[in-house]
Design a protein that fits this description.
The chain is mainly alpha-helical. Helices cover 71% and strands 0% of the residues.
Length: 369
């Protein structure tokens, strides 16, 4: 069924005065974006707050890796089922449910810290539950976006939404250290829970009708097979998935070790950690603005090539602070070009279309937002 946007959702029908903000003309996208603003800040703090929490408990690089693995492992294992489910239920209601459960997990983490009973195995368990929820949240959330704006506005909508990720990565470090120093890690997790409650409120104002289940009569296993068959027939999608997989496994895990870098290499603490996270945020925002201003489907291959090369060079850099900033800029451009290309080339009438938009650079911890 073609993606049609009701005319009454537009703010105006004349020429777009500010092309970079074109997607904001649509009411449903504005609500989606505002809900994402709260959830991106919440997920950013959740990811890096848990890493610092585990570092505080163990000072072990191995345990930091276990936290990230427990979050990302379920996504690799269950995301295909999340994609199938996204085609069979109302996506908006599913996302609202997962965001409400994120709030519960964050508040529970804060309570465990406040009562001084938090243990490493509990952090890993909570990360595992978060990963399971993300397995169903990510494909539904990504499948919602193409229904909120016309096809010609999709690249702009994705770039604007990615500003939330970059913005939270700048706002978050600015408050991370002061909040932890003032209220402790438990206060941080209570605020995370509150941000997800606000997300649920914003998304509850959206209309559920554009996100209804598909009319496909295929069984789940049949939908899976058809989705994989479609991927095998498309060299473009296979290439995009290959790029995302290789980059995710070998390049995007350095953020997990930032607490170790901050303390052992730079001889600092939570303040140093916040500064390094700020470098990631500034670089990410630079990449997002570049893509929103210059990016389109015609020059996507060029952006993907240049950003991928820049990302590799940044990781090879010996300057940790500069690596954080430049690699993040290259990462964000690569990820957003990947998402835009995948969202456009995946036809809406293919069963289980969300699978081809899912196996992306979400292997990067902060891309879970």
């Amino acid at each position: 069924m073609p993606n049609r946007i009701p005319e009454e959702t537009e703010l105006a029908h004349g020429p777009v005065r500010f092309p970079i903000l074109a997607a904001f003309r649509y009411r449903e996208y504005r609500l989606y974006w505002l809900g994402g603003a709260f959830s991106n800040i919440g997920m950013w703090a959740l990811v890096f707050g848990r890493l610092w929490l585990m570092h505080s408990l163990t000072e072990s690089a191995l345990y930091l890796g276990l936290v990230t693995t427990s979050s990302l492992g379920p996504i690799l294992l269950f995301s295909v089922w999340g994609g199938v489910l996204a085609d069979r239920v109302n996506r908006l209601r599913l996302v609202i449910a997962t965001r409400a459960l994120f709030a519960v997990l964050a508040l529970l983490t804060g309570a465990l810290i406040s009562t001084d009973v938090i243990r490493p195995w509990q952090v890993i368990t909570l990360s595992l539950l978060t990963g399971i929820l993300l397995s169903f949240d990510i494909p539904s959330r990504q499948a919602m976006l193409p229904r909120l704006v016309p096809r010609e506005r999709l690249v702009n909508a994705i770039a604007l939404y990615s500003l939330l990720f970059s913005g939270s990565a700048i706002v978050g470090p600015g408050f991370f250290a002061p909040l932890v120093n003032l209220w402790g890690l438990d206060g941080l997790f209570y605020l995370i829970g509150g941000s997800y409650i606000l997300t649920v409120g914003m998304m509850s104002m959206m209309k559920p009708s554009p996100h209804q289940r598909s009319n496909s009569e295929h069984r789940m296993w049949q939908s899976l097979r058809e989705g994989f068959r479609y991927i095998q027939k498309s060299r473009l999608i296979l290439s995009l998935i290959g790029i995302a997989t290789i980059g995710g496994i070998f390049g995007m895990s350095f953020e997990t070790l930032l607490p170790i870098f901050a303390e052992r290499l730079l001889k600092g603490g939570v303040d140093t950690y916040s500064i390094m996270l700020l470098g990631l945020g500034v670089g990410g925002l630079s990449g997002t603005v570049t893509l929103a201003w210059l990016g389109n489907l015609k020059n996507s291959p060029r952006f993907l090539l240049l950003s991928g090369t820049g990302f590799g060079l940044a990781l090879a850099s010996s300057e940790i602070e500069m690596e954080s900033m430049s690699s993040s800029a290259a990462q964000v451009i690569s990820i957003m070009v990947w998402r835009s290309s995948m969202a456009i080339v995946a036809p809406s009438d293919v069963p289980y279309r969300s699978i081809v938009k899912l196996i992306e650079a979400d292997a990067r911890p902060s891309c879970l937002m």
